[in-house]
Amino acid sequence: MLVNSSRRQSVDQTIVHFSKTSTFGQLLDSLRSAASQMGIWNDEMHRDLPKRWEKHGNMIILPHNCFKHPNWRLMGPKLWEMVTELLNTRRLGKKRVIEGDEFHEPHIDLLYGKDGWVEHIDGDIRFLYDVTKCFFNVNNASEKQRISEFDCHQEVVTDMFAGIGYYTLPYLISAHAKHVYAIDWNEDAIEALKRSLQSNCVQDRCTVIQGDSRKVVFEKL
Asked: Are 110 and 116 in contact (CB under 8 A)?
């Protein structure tokens, strides 16, 4: 089998470049050194390192398609401790492939740290939620912007399927709704919403109801 030496050199030069200039390079250098000392380094492992991730407060969430090589498991908990330190964070999580379910659970495994509670700041709004239990939808920015342009000073709003408060909080904080009834059946989302209401000091203008929105609006409101 012939190996294209110029291509091999190019790959090696790229790795060296990463090593000197990027967080990816620091990950590569440190983890390759640790794995080599254990006698488990494989050249394919560098392709398994994450090149991007999500940051939520002091937690970083890795994509689902990294650290899949079986040799990583041989490093045990030391691996996640090293990655957490190298990424300059305090907690570390990793996504799993999301399976469909009615609660929209995030399927994130906590790899390092005590819990999954994070704070996401969106303009003037603070969202508190547990990333291992609640899903944060980043695709509703335009709708939240639209809500922020409303004047709801004298309006009472009912938010069905409120979740962690994607729309409840903008109605209260940006649109200044007189009162909001927030309904959801997921107890983890309800807990997150209550924490966010407290953090944003708007709990007095919101009634949180746990239950099926389709029934609650007819039975309790």
From this structure: yes
Superfamily of domain 23-114: Met-10+ protein-like domains (3.30.300.110)
Amino acid in the structure at residue 221: L
C-alpha separations of 85 from 20, 89, 119 in Å: 18, 6, 20
The backbone torsions φ and ψ at residue 100, rounded to the nearest 5 degrees and listed phi first, read -65, 130
DSSP three-state, residue 202: coil
- Structural domain boundaries in the chain: 23-114, 136-210
The two structure tokens encoding residue 175: 């649109």
Burial of residue 86 (CB within 10 Å: 0-12, 13-18, 19+) is middle
The amino acid sitting at 78 is K
The reported pLDDT for the residue numbered 174 is 96
- Highest mean pLDDT (candidates 22-36, 119-133, 193-207): 193-207
Structure tokens at 112: 């390092």
**What torsion, rounded to 10 degrees, do the Cα atoms 79, 82, 85, 89 define?**
-10
- The predicted-structure confidence for 127-160, as pLDDT tens digits, reads as follows 999 998 887 877 778 888 899 899 999 999 999 9
DSSP annotation string for 56-101:
ETTEEEE-TTSS-SGGGGGGTHHHHHHHHHHTT-SEEEEE-PPPP-
Number of CB atoms found within 10 A of residue 214's CB: 12
Supply the angle between the helices 5-21 and 23-37 in degrees, to the nearest 10: 110
